[in-house]
Fold these 2 entries.
Entry 1:
Amino acid sequence: MALDSKIPAGSLEEKWTRFRSTVKLVSPANKRKLDVLVIGTGLAGASAAASLAELGYRVSAFTFHDSPRRAHSIAAQGGINAAKNYRNDGDSTYRLFYDTIKGGDYRAREANVYRLAEVSGNIIDQCVAQGVPFAREYGGLLDNRSFGGVQVERTFYARGQTGQQLLIGAYQALERQVGLGNVQMYTRHEMLDVVIRNGRAVGIIVRDLITGEIQRHAGHAVVLATGGYGNVFFLSTNAMGCNVTAIWKAHKKGAFFGNPCFTQIHPTCLPQHGDYQSKLTLMSESLRNDGRVWVPKAKGDKRRPEEIPDAERDYYLERKYPSFGNLVPRDIASRAAKEVCDEGRGVGTTGLAVYLDFADAIKRLGQKVVEARYGNLFEMYEKITGDNPYQTPMMIYPAVHYTMGGLWVDYNLSTTVPGLYAIGECNFSDHGANRLGASALMQGLADGYFILPYTIGEYLSGEILAGKNDAKWSEFDEAENAVKSKIERLFSIKGKHSVDHFHRQLGKVMWDDCGMARSKDSLSRAAVEIRKIRDAFWNDVRITGAPNELNPELEKALRVADFFELGELMVQDAMHREESCGGHFRLEHQTPDGEALRHDDQFMYVAAYEYKGDNQQEAMHKEDLKYEVVKPSQRSYK
Amino acid sequence: MNLTLKVWRQKNSSAKGTFETYQLDNVDVHASFLEMFDVLNEKLINEGKEPVAFDHDCREGICGTCSMVINGRAHGPLQNTTTCQLHMRHFKDGDTIVVEPWRSKAFPVLKDLVVDRGAFDRIIAAGGFVSVNTGQAPDANTIPVKKEKAELAFDAAACIGCGACVAACKNSSAMLFVSAKVSHLALLPQGNAERYSRVLNMVAQMDKEGFGSCTNTNACEAECPKGISVTNIARLNREYLAASLAAQKK
Amino acid sequence: MMFTSSLGRKYVMALTGLFLISFLVVHLSGNLLSLIPDGGLTFNAFTHFMETNLVIKVMEYVLFAGFIIHILQSVVVTLINQRARPSKYAVNAGSASSTWASRNMGILGTIIFIFLVIHLRDFFFELKFGDDELGLDASGNVNLYKEVVETFAMLPYTALYIVAMFGLGFHLWHGFASSFRSLGLMHSKYTPAIVFIGKLYTIIVTAGFIIIPLYWYLVQL
């Protein structure tokens, strides 16, 4: 099957306008007859569900959370980018587009990214109108800051809680539609399969997490907005519930998976401190503006940081990247931290941490200024670690943060299955091999508010005559039975170990061998190890309780079972991509001084995988990326 | 550290609950309260017993999912802290810790420590929004907002909807939650058009859900993990009074 | 709707509460007259005025209404609030997050209510319907003063009055500022003043009401 990205004709600037003017429409009377199922209610899902309902579609929205407001979009701290040029500093749609393409290391589709930059301004307008309390200046107008190493100030922010405020805005818009009766909301319902009939998505199978009931929901289109899969690493900055299940089921039912190995590792997270640890907390990147990153020069130096004189410290980012210093992009900062720890110079009890030191900043600016800038972050650090960062350096270490990969979608955000859409982090588009700071919120809301509501019309206009989809169709029987038998199988194992026991092992393999630095050896090893753990899981997992009740262990088991399969695909993808780009670093492919080395001549494409059945190698399809406007160059931060 | 845990166990919403006592040894002082529960659950699973069901998700204090009453206090003894951000170093070796779910008629227990907070969603659906459809918005900077007002609105908007205010209030009143949303939107020009209908509808829904009424004890503010101030409740009272007086005869 | 919603009931509690607070000022002023060493002439003259003035007579009914509404409403609100938490906590740590008085307005109110019944029987009804027994003073006014003096010679009565006044004190300690908040009056600039005045008022009123029985009991020992 050839991949058709359906990019509209015309110059980059015209594509979206032209698309919107020519896309097929659905009349208001007909919209009332069309059911859209939206899975996930984070930024992308909530904004899409609300906007579709406002247009007149009959929407059902599903979340496994107890409320749509809990989705992990809520945890984004930094901000949201928009090419408003309120600063008069020369920002433009083109610049935002260009920065995003370059930041993604030239592995994203030009047309999609340009459209993203184009609608970025509308997002801010919409959110402000909803009452999102963005930071303001004394004149009452919106404030901006610079973020993620770009040269303009285009980031809108709401203290350190931008994601929360944007999500609450979208949540309120969604609840408004719930109140009006336009959206049927299903909380604590988890999607466990997509139903396909004649090659089109016609519904989903969900489990009511309170009663355990397996339900069928039929619809004319299914929109997946289920977020990223960073939890395949067990420890990540993701919330505990984040999972791949919805998109993995879609993948197994025919949707191609794009660039699964592209994972973003965030450099400033709290290091792991014990085996019981359940997640890694992200500390805002802004800390690197004033903090200096260092490790001792000598291996195994166990002195307290205050006792190590300046001459015996290695400020390695400043040493290796004199012009960007501590502000190098995320992937570079992360890898450098790993390198020094691999050399045995890491600090803390595990040796897997580096110092982020504010002593000089406090000397230079005074404690008051530092407190004003980072007070809440310092407080959060102290709350978690018990250490006071005003007195002793913070300890940080990189952690998995975001997955650029996801379901392959065309310009319409449609997967390769007609009627099945993927929006937000769960699709692969827009960020290429590395995402810029403050761009995830932008993409989620762009997809949900301003792109999907248009593009879905193209498909739904053809569904008007199809009539009502029927949950009694045999395809629903099959899907429901498959889900039920999988649950039965899990209960029948009656093994010795908890789900977490296996998840932890999977995470360790993924992190060690398919994490910040990958090689043919490590990936071959990972492939074998994952299979072993997966087999052990299916032979020895113990699911307590019963299927027909609130059962968090069963929920976890169903998710982790999918993580094993995803892990194998990530390894396959990382193995095939014989280059280093963005978040994907292959040890075999680096410049003499250790920087990522892209091979544009061989790998300037999206790798989209097709599921071929249990235990079969997946088939890889290529979508070649054509750069018509931007000329790819090697990134340099020296 | 070694701990004795007395945890509320309840099979489902119709079952009768009871406290179970567990002994947990060698708890790391740096573990979070929820990580301590992870350890307990792993132990229970290994013993073939059912783990304790509890709500949690982001584990960084912002999603508002976690919800435990620890030794009689919503989210435990620390101020401005959610259960997930509470660490075991704040307890002592040999402590007995009693853990209960949020208790309120409007938040029925679903299982063990998990409660149903759908009432909050229904209150928001009744009026906690600005009616602006996607695409209708004017340019963001056409609506200037006084910085001080924006900051006040933000203080209210910081609510994470966890329900600790209801759990802590002796009357199970949801007024801190409702007032935070009413304040957030009433303080901003964007929320002005629906100011009165919003407060009337939200309060009507709140009463319908079976929450108690506020007697100004301030327990909600003291236990709120986001430090939402009771001045918002005063604003709610003011808004509702003005709205009631201004309301037309139907 | 406005007065039956949870917020409406708060307004009613606050308004009647503030009204009763203002009544206490008048009541206390009158009572303090009993301390004037003129054999009760001023006190009895004041009583006479209060008993015969038309405005006061009307206000008496308003006052009764105020009490009854305040009490009935509090019963309703308490029942609603009790029902909002059918299953109670095993551990209560209310003291960590709120003051004792704020949590126990119902109990304090009940103490005041019991006191009120006794108090009305002793003085109000005595005055209204028991004129004959009280006799007249030198100015020809009904001698309620005598009743006051005699009553507070008895330890149980005096003790009861003093305990009740402490109940009233705690009730006011929370209730004064709380009423303002219920009516939506809260402001960073003015609220501290309201709180201060509330506490000052509470101390003066409570002390005032306690001094009188205490004084008469002690001088008659």
Note: The longest strand of chain A covers residues 394-403.
Entry 2:
Amino acid sequence: MKRKLAIAAACLLLAGCGAGNGEIRVSGGKPDESLKVEEVLKEKDDRITSAVAVFVQEDLLVVVEVRPLSRFSKAKIEEELTKKMEKAFPDQTVTLSADRKIYWETDKLDELEEEDKLHKKVETIKSLSKEET
Amino acid sequence: MMASFLIAFVVGGLFCVIGQLLFDVAKLSPGHTLCILVVSGAVLDGFGLYEPLIDFAGAGATIPITSFGNSLTHGALQEAEKHGLVGVITGMFEVTSSGISAAILFGFIASLLFRSKSRP
Amino acid sequence: MDRQAYSQMEQQVTPKVPLGLNLMKAFLTGGIICAIGEGVMYFYMYFFDFTERTAGNPTVATMIFIAMLLTGFGKYKRIAQFGGAGSAVPVTGFGNAMISAAIEHRTEGYVLGVGGNMFKLAGSVIVFGVFSAFVVALIKTILVKFGVVGW
């Protein structure tokens, strides 16, 4: 039992550390759009360590990693950023989250090539982010 | 990643220190201590303070028994938001059910599997 | 010997436990249990479709499962001796109270023994939890109705 837990923890550590590296990455959008995303996110730079934004058709998924000590106000940060994003991209359906799970899932989106699979994944992520408790 | 484990460790530990203070300094029985912690969890959620704590500390806030009071209140408030006053009663176990049902279930399974060692 | 004299004598006889050491032990034990919980939470988030918000429920259930194994094999008692409140405050302590009561009273039968005694210790926690949650939620709902505070 202990050994298995240790192995699982080690796997998670390795997998977790690979993700965020203090950068903002935007994919799937036009150049001016990605600049805009970065601009919006930069304003809150001190509380956010890294961010990923993905444009998929009419959807815009934005995930941010909040600095551990700022996580107290995670809900507030999410709310503020969602409002800003919606203002900046009125045509897109914005889904913004600071959740680790959703961060991982969105980070993986780039690897998917097929259109339907991508779309399905986006729907799953959106429904996940809406789930309460 | 490492930071979240550390934060969970420290916050969870601090809850237990509060418990130990109630044991040793206030000379309360374990039952009283746990009741006080559960009630304080419920009150904290009433002020909307417990959810940010969970966001901050993860398991460090969900594992101590205070989260039990929090999730009871949270379920009640969620339902009250939708259905008004009746929701206060109906929504209470909506969120908490996992802890209690797990404890009942595993308690019963344990009584089937294990034998008491202290008594013949 | 009257009651006062007895309590005085009791205080003299019982060995003084250093408070700092006890707090330290409780902090360590509780902290380790919560760190393990964090690991379990990451496990559920990584391999299943749980978010940070929803992973709490299966984590609590898993921790109680671990408590069942430890209680069944008689190891939880030792943790409790070392950790004091550190083992009682996390949900594993709540689980241990219910599970050990269930195991202990099995000889009295499943309905009256296990079913009846399971909530002997844990019942008060549930009762006070539910009642306080009711009062808090009621007050807050009324305050919201009158527009004093928002949700």
Note: Chain A has five helices and four strands.
